[in-house]
Specification:
Elements: H1 5-24, E1 28-32, H2 39-50, E2 54-56, H3 57-65, H4 69-76, H5 78-93, E3 99-101, H6 110-119, E4 120-126, H7 129-136, H8 150-165, E5 170-173, H9 179-195
Parallel strand pairs: 1-3, 1-4, 2-3, 4-5
Helix pairs in contact: 1-9, 2-9, 3-5, 4-5, 5-6
The structure holds shikimate-3-phosphate (S3P).
Length: about 200
């Protein structure tokens, strides 16, 4: 019996997912990118497809601190948040394999970048300014966006961070299409990258 296009595609995603998990060993798939890129929403679906646990670093930070990210920023400042973020992500990376969504600033820290290169494969969810802005407008929980005009802040963060995010092992364009489409593209990119056995990039 010949399989139809959809069935073939499903089978190929399944095969690729199995190959990815085998190649990962105890490494984690680490999603990086700016606020609004979809790291949590897409990460959750990606984890489901790969049959791996999903962990959100910001939620873990909040759980460890017993406070929201907003309250940590307000009460203790950004440096304190970054220290906690670095420690929590280091701990989480020891517990792979999993899909780990990180906050937008995490990968900018050189120590975290090295840990991710050693214990993970990094996926940059890249997105255009308009897409990011439209998404971050929906929630009021991002302290950095309260420091000025969100458009200016995001533009500045893009200038500063995109060259660093570009060090990720793979990158996929996040845009307003079904999450399943992006997940499929990530699976293809991971499959290609992991099976090419590229040495991980640091710094
Ligand atoms: C931050 C992004 C946030 C959160 C914190 C700082 C950043 O996470 O970690 O507000 O520096 O870009 P998301 O990228 O999940 O919104």
């Amino acid at each position: 019996m010949r399989l139809g296009y959809k069935a073939r595609k499903r089978a190929s995603v399944k095969e690729k997912s199995a190959a990815i998990c085998l190649a990962l060993g105890d490494k984690s798939v680490v999603l990086i990118g700016l606020m609004g890129a979809g790291k949590t929403a897409i990460g959750r679906r990606l984890a489901h497809r790969l049959g791996l646990p999903f962990v959100d670093a910001d939620s873990e930070i909040e759980r460890a601190a017993g406070q929201t990210v907003g309250d940590i920023f307000a009460e203790h400042g950004e440096d304190y948040f970054r220290d906690g973020e670095r420690k929590v992500i280091a701990r989480l990376l020891d517990a792979g394999p999993q899909v780990l969504a990180t906050g937008g600033g995490a990968y900018i820290d050189p120590q975290t970048r090295r840990a991710v290169a050693k214990k993970g494969i990094s996926v940059w969810l890249k997105a255009d300014l308009d897409v990011l802005l439209e998404r971050v407008k929906r929630r009021d929980n991002r302290p950095l966006l309260k420091t000025g005009d969100p458009k200016q802040v995001m533009r500045k963060l893009m200038d500063e961070r995109y060259p660093i995010y570009a060090k990720a092992d793979v990158s996929v364009q996040s845009r307003n299409v079904a999450h399943g489409t992006i997940v499929g593209e990530i699976i293809n990119a991971l499959h290609e990258s992991l099976l090419r056995q590229r040495t991980p990039k640091a710094d």
